[in-house]
Design brief:
Layout: H1 16-27, E1 34-40, E2 51-52, H2 56-65, H3 70-79, H4 84-91, E3 98-101, E4 107-108, E5 115-120, H5 121-126, H6 128-152, E6 156-159, H7 167-181, E7 185-186, H8 189-195, H9 205-211, H10 214-222, E8 227-231, H11 237-252, E9 257-263, H12 268-281, E10 288-291, H13 297-305, E11 312-315, H14 317-320, E12 331-338, E13 344-346, E14 363-370, E15 376-383, E16 393-397, E17 405-409, E18 411-415, E19 418-422, E20 425-426, H15 433-445, E21 462-464, H16 466-486
Helix pairs in contact: 2-6, 3-4, 6-7, 6-13, 7-15, 9-10, 10-11, 11-12
Bound molecules: adenosine-5'-triphosphate, 1-O-pyrophosphono-5-O-phosphono-alpha-D-ribofuranose and nicotinic acid (NIO).
Adenosine-5'-triphosphate binds next to helix 12 and helix 13.
Catalytic activity: 5-phospho-alpha-D-ribose 1-diphosphate + nicotinate + ATP + H2O = nicotinate beta-D-ribonucleotide + ADP + phosphate + diphosphate
GO biological process, one term: NAD+ biosynthetic process via the salvage pathway
Family: Belongs to the NAPRTase family.
Length: about 475
């Protein structure tokens, strides 16, 4: 497909309606009006207590490269929907807006802006779809991975999902997100090459089937590799697989690193305990037991409760496809737009569903932590000009149930949205993947355990400042009054 278009680009990786709107803005002369859009999700996925933000590095790359190539423009011309003048305008398009975002690995919550685009209306509009595409998926997988990490504690977890992922990109970027969220390694060799994620692999049933015999297969593998993990469940785990793995390990001795065995079927609690006994009795107490087979955080928790003797967990399908919740549902909404007098006015999207009413105005998210213990007290969404970090005491209240409130003193307020691009120029230095991963780990440490448990976590406070709340109420009232007048 790409071979037909050697100059294929991501400029058309957008919904047609964005380009339709841009043509209107341009013909009506408002394409350069300043707008502010914010990205947020309404519900934390997997009923988790937090999400892990991921995807920024790819968004940065997309924005840096964003331009309409010859074949992009030729294609748009062929559709017959766009004028030559407009296509000429697109030919000269370069992203010139300001992008702010929380950094990758940051712990984030529902209903707070995690990314903001401020600049020409056309620019803000064009990039919506691609940014949502990237952030929705990577944040979802990083969050799922963090859930798995939270139940395995210090055990090793490997990402095995490529074969079940929704196509090439999902495998590659999902693996990266999984690594940020806490996975240790991936089976995907290309992801390892591209991102430097440790690669890890055992062998498949096919090897044993090829030799039609556990012993022959393990021996062949052991004489062609130093590190050996034998897959022992092809025929009979306890009567053939493990005894033959032990036999080969003994025969080869120091010539190999007998790292352990993998089980991929059956009752993994029962089998792993018997396998442990067999390995220990044979003197291989440091050999590890790997397990895989449709695992996720729930099965792993249950296996641990049953005392399963599993040391290394391989997780594929249910991680990479976000099996139990395949969409994060992040949205990208306009919160302010310049009027014909050049004044930035706040805008709102109303809905009969209170949760779907957007919060107008350009905002900053402040993470409020107590000086005493460094733990997060909540997030405080304030209008851009507010300076909560300079306040002595902060009044925090639930934006819907306002009677839930508290006054915080002796706190630190840290702004989460950072400048990534300023007027089209990248100003943010992307950290290394390992730094991002470590950052996620560190950020999770600053969260109280109540928000981190995998079942029924407490709701983390995401509050609006009084000014932000009053502004929202004022705008809702004004719109209602103006509709009433016109009706
Ligand atoms: N002790 C256990 N407690 C809870 N879940 C388990 C336990 N052992 C295995 N599982 C999980 O139960 C599911 C069993 O899947 P399935 O019914 O396909 O059996 P299987 O062992 O894979 O069968 P097969 O031998 O055909 O491969 C998997 O998701 C596996 O992770
Ligand atoms: O179960 P997942 O979490 O998705 O992990 C990946 C799965 O992929 C492999 O099975 P597959 O049947 O594809 O190949 P095999 O022939 O090696 O068993 C592996 O044995 C795992 O079971
Ligand atoms: O290395 C493995 O054991 C592996 C890799 C991919 C999928 N399942 C297992």
């Amino acid at each position: 497909m790409e071979m037909n278009y050697p100059d294929d680009s991501y400029a058309l990786h957008t919904d047609e309606y964005q380009i339709n709107m841009i043509q209107t803005y341009w013909l009506k002369g408002i394409d350069q009006r300043k707008a502010v859009f914010e990205l947020y999700f309404r519900k934390i996925p997997f009923q988790n207590g937090y999400a892990i933000f991921a995807g920024l590095e790819r968004v940065i790359d997309y924005l840096n490269k964003l331009h309409f190539t010859k074949s992009d423009l030729e294609y748009l011309k062929e559709t017959g929907n766009f004028s030559d003048d407009f296509l000429e305008y697109l030919r000269n398009f370069k992203f010139s807006a300001t992008l702010r975002a929380v950094v990758e690995g940051e712990v984030v919550f529902n209903n707070e802006p995690i990314l903001q685009v401020e600049g020409p209306l056309a620019d803000c509009q064009l990039v919506e779809t691609a940014i949502l595409n990237v952030v929705n998926y990577q944040t979802l997988i990083a969050t799922k991975a963090a859930r798995v990490r939270s139940v395995v504690h210090d055990d090793a977890i490997m990402e095995f999902g490529t074969r079940r992922a929704q196509e090439f990109d999902a495998a590659i970027w999902g693996t990266r997100a999984a690594y940020i969220g806490g996975f240790d390694a991936t089976s995907n060799v290309r992801a390892s090459k591209i991102f430097g994620i440790p690669a890890s692999g055992t062998h498949a049933h096919a090897l044993v089937q090829a030799y039609r015999d556990d012993y022959e297969a393990f021996k062949a593998y052991a004489t062609t590799h130093k590190d050996c993990v034998f897959l022992v469940d092809t025929y009979d785990t306890l009567r053939s697989g493990v005894p033959n793995a032990i036999r080969v390990a003994k025969e080869l001795g120091d010539k190999i690193n007998f790292l352990g065995v993998r089980i991929d079927s059956g009752d993994m609690a029962y089998i792993s305990k018997r396998v442990r006994e067999q390995l220990d009795e044979a003197g291989f107490s440091s050999a590890k037991i790997y397990a895989s087979n449709d695992l996720d955080e729930k099965t792993i928790t249950n296996l641990k409760m049953q005392g399963a003797k599993i040391d290394v967990w391989g997780v594929g399908t249910k991680l990479i496809t976000a099996y139990d919740q395949p969409a994060l549902g992040a949205v990208y909404k306009m919160v302010a737009i310049e009027n014909s007098d050049g004044i930035l006015e706040d805008t709102i999207k109303l809905s009969s569903n209170a949760e779907k009413v957007s919060t107008p105005g350009k905002k900053q998210v402040w993470r409020i932590t107590k000086k005493a213990d460094g733990k997060s007290e909540g997030d405080y969404i304030a209008l851009w000009d507010e300076k909560p970090a300079e306040e002595k005491s902060l009044y925090m209240f639930h934006p819907q149930y306002t009677y839930i409130n508290k006054n915080i003193t002796d706190f630190d307020a840290r702004p989460l949205l950072k400048d990534i691009f300023v007027n089209g120029t990248q100003v943010y230095q992307v950290p290394s993947l390992i730094e991002i991963k470590e950052y996620a780990h560190e950020r999770l440490d600053s969260l109280w355990e109540e928000y981190k448990r995998d079942l029924n976590p407490q709701d983390y406070p995401v509050d609006l400042s009084e000014a932000c709340y009053n502004n929202k109420m004022k705008i809702i009232k004004e719109i209602r009054e103006s509709i009433n007048k016109k009706a």
